[in-house]
Amino acid sequence: MPSFDEVLKEAGEFGRFQKRVFFLLSQTGITFSSLFASVVFLGRAPDSFWCRIPGAAELSERCGWTLEEERNFTVLPLQLGNESASGECQRLDVTWDTSASCASPLARSGNGSVGSPPLAPCHGNWAYEQPHSSIVSEYDLVCGNAWMLDLSQAILNLGFLAGAFILGYAADRYGRILIYLLSCLGVGICGIIVAFSPNFTVFLIFRFLQGMFGKGTWMTCYVIVTEIVGSDQRIVGIVIQIFFTLGIIILPGIAYLIPTWQGIQLAISLPNFLFLLYYWVVPESPRWLLTRKKGDKALKIMRSIAKHNGKFLSPHYSEITISNEEVSNPSFLDLVRTPQMRRNTLILMYAWFTSALIYQGLVMRLGIIGGNLYLDFFISGAVELPAAFLIIVTIDRIGRRLPFAASNIVASVACLITAFLPEDIPWLKTTVATLGRLSITIAFEVVYLVNSELYPTTLRNFGVSLCSSLCDLGGIIAPFLLFRLAAIWLELPLIIFSILAAVCGLLVLLLPETKGISLPETLEDVEQLPSHFGKCGKKRKHRDTNSYI
């Protein structure tokens, strides 16, 4: 009775069939990364807005004013009395006299004087030159409501977190391709509802659901790809990240061509409906079918894979076995039961949290630093492309630990230098910031691989799922940390990022090196990893990576 890996080797570990499925499913990375970073363009600060005086809309309509004329009557008198006032979050504490002349609309103030009327805070009565350009102007997320923009991104990441657990469990129970297709349908439907939300509450509810389904698409496509290739082809887990970067690069082009946030939202959501066509070209994971005791279906798919790859499976095969089955009901205690496992788990959780927080913080920072947002975002995305190639070149030559630590340290130094560089040398500031973005991208992608290599087979899926959930927690915190600290000092978030990355760089040096050794099968193997690396120096062939992100 052959094992699954033996049958896969005979059918072709990365032949024409796997390459086709890999390419098709990798497109999911483009739509997922667009959703991930979309807040930069959906939540753009409006170019110009001001607080309307009560009665302004009626008088403006009667007098036939343009928005510019209304602003002149509203803001200029305010600035004459207080030069520091912008008219955005405060207004004159007066009302329009709707019966007055259109040339002199201001009524007498409540204290009886017309010289310097008092000021009043603005509450939900703003006017925008471009009212539908972003969710900020659509739902009045300005002044005292500005924190709600942070909330919108935190809600999306909360959806990612929920999707990792809910849809991750569903994919294990009901099948990879079924959950993938349902997730694609959910992303598309929720994306449309988000675009036409009548209020901010509805927007948040369906943005959460879109995040949940979006994580389902990314997670299951990653799993399917890694489960249909041979154990020596774990590099696909790194290469698939390139398509995530392509989505980051394409997003500013979409935002540049489409002037409204609803159009951008639809452009990144509707392509998910096209993925439903994969029902006819992407089969269920044969590895999953074997774990569900559906060997006949798995063997049928393996024969189809062999046929597409120009191979031939022996007709005597009637059943396939699968090794490395997981223990049932693993718990967090299993991940911290022994000293080495405890150290690995805590460091990896911190690494996931830090990488996600810094990466997402640097992405969103582009929306608040000024300059050409579209060009800056494109350049920062393009610089991520070399990350995957650098990882591919280095991890099998010098190992995982040094690139992992070095990328965090370089990101830390780059963030710190960027914070203190003067604004009058923008090219240098941009160059150093770009280096930081590249470095944290490398760290983010390496943690995917290292996490799966430091857990035993019986706990690998659960361990990776639990540790990577800290990624979404970092994403929830990132917008609040960035926007609230930037309000104090624009560069203050970079100081925090620098500290977090430096600590991470030092901590990952405590992890064992896994280059050239086989994946641990048991807790005892994990405890012996330092001896494999340091004392014995044995190098054994990798057998399995089965990373379930």
Automatic annotation (TrEMBL):
Pfam families: Sugar_tr (PF00083). InterPro entries: MFS_dom, MFS_sugar_transport-like, MFS_trans_sf, Orgcat_transp/SVOP, Sugar_transporter_CS. PROSITE patterns: MFS (PS50850), SUGAR_TRANSPORT_1 (PS00216). The chain crosses the membrane at residues 21-42, 151-170, 177-196, 202-225, 237-258, 264-282, 347-368, 374-395, 402-421, 427-450, 462-482, 488-511. It catalyses: (R)-adrenaline(out) = (R)-adrenaline(in); spermidine(in) = spermidine(out); tyramine(in) = tyramine(out); (R)-noradrenaline(out) = (R)-noradrenaline(in). NCBIfam families: 2A0119. Belongs to the major facilitator (TC 2.A.1) superfamily. Organic cation transporter (TC 2.A.1.19) family. This is Solute carrier family 22 member 3. It comes from Cisticola juncidis.
